[in-house]
Amino acid sequence: MRITCEYNVIQVSFLPRLFPVNVYLVEEDSELTLVDAGMPFSLKGILATAQSLNKPITKVILTHAHGDHVGALDGLKNALPDVEVIISRRDAALLTGDASLLPDEPQTPVRGSVPKNIHTRPDRLLEDGDRIGSLLAIATPGHTPGHMAFMDTRSGVLIAGDAYQLHGGLAVAGQLRPLFPFPALATWHRETALASAKRLAELEPSVLAVGHGRMLRQPAAAMRAAMADAEQRLRPAGGLR
């Protein structure tokens, strides 16, 4: 386990060298918000890190409902029964194992580890632009239909989930990096993911914090380069739709 801090955001990375799975603790004045719940084995590390900060976890926000982002959710709810669980309205269905698509969505099958045995149900459903403490919710569909990112409005740290990856090389969701191909293989719709990545880059965050890989300071230029690469790779397949 590796712990890294930027401003009020603490990255807790599990298996950081082999298969990094990151969760984030966002410090508020008297409490902590956990963004993502990692894998089932992440539970002890999350609770221990929160204890070291001497603040309670009062909220768990999920960027999306893939198994490596919700794995410890039931364990967290059992350990912290009063914690508020929050996810986008769209991915709430995915959290129950329902991978069906809405009529107005691209009819590409949802990919990745859709959970089948998560019992915890959300207490709050998010829409684009909602606020959770210091965090601003930003709809970023593409990796999953209801994927969301969260920006700390105090510092500009952007918790982007799997809208970008950094392990194996910076990439937009859906763009394969051979050294770490898993986020690309689990992306639902690449064109939609690219549009979401553009929206995030326009925010010019101070730090990019992703689900897989280290945090990156002053990432705007690198994010734009990743977008250009994604656009170029999509064109030979018939261009952006």
How would you portray this structure in words?
This protein has 241 residues and is α/β, with parallel strands linked by helices. It has seven helices and 15 strands. Strands 1-2-3-4-5-6-7 form a seven-stranded mixed beta sheet, with helices on one face. A six-stranded mixed beta sheet has the order 8-9-10-11-14-15, with no helix packed on it. A two-stranded antiparallel sheet has the order 12-13. A hairpin with a 2-residue loop joins strand 8 and strand 9. The protein is globular, with a radius of gyration of 16 Å. It starts with a strand and ends in a 7-residue tail after the last helix.
Key terms:
241 residues; alpha/beta; 7-stranded mixed β-sheet; 6-stranded mixed β-sheet; 7 helices; 15 strands; globular; disordered C terminus
The largest pleated sheet is described as:
7 strands, mixed
Percent in helix: 10-25%
Strand order of the largest sheet: 1-2-3-4-5-6-7
Helix/strand order, N-terminal first: EEEEHEHHEHEEEEEEEHHEEH
**Count of extended strands:** 15
Low-confidence parts lasting 5 or more residues at pLDDT below 50? 237-241
Proportion of residues in extended strands:
25-35%
Shape: globular
**What is the rounded distance between the termini?**
41 Å
| Structure classification | alpha/beta
Gyration radius from CA atoms, angstroms? 16 Å
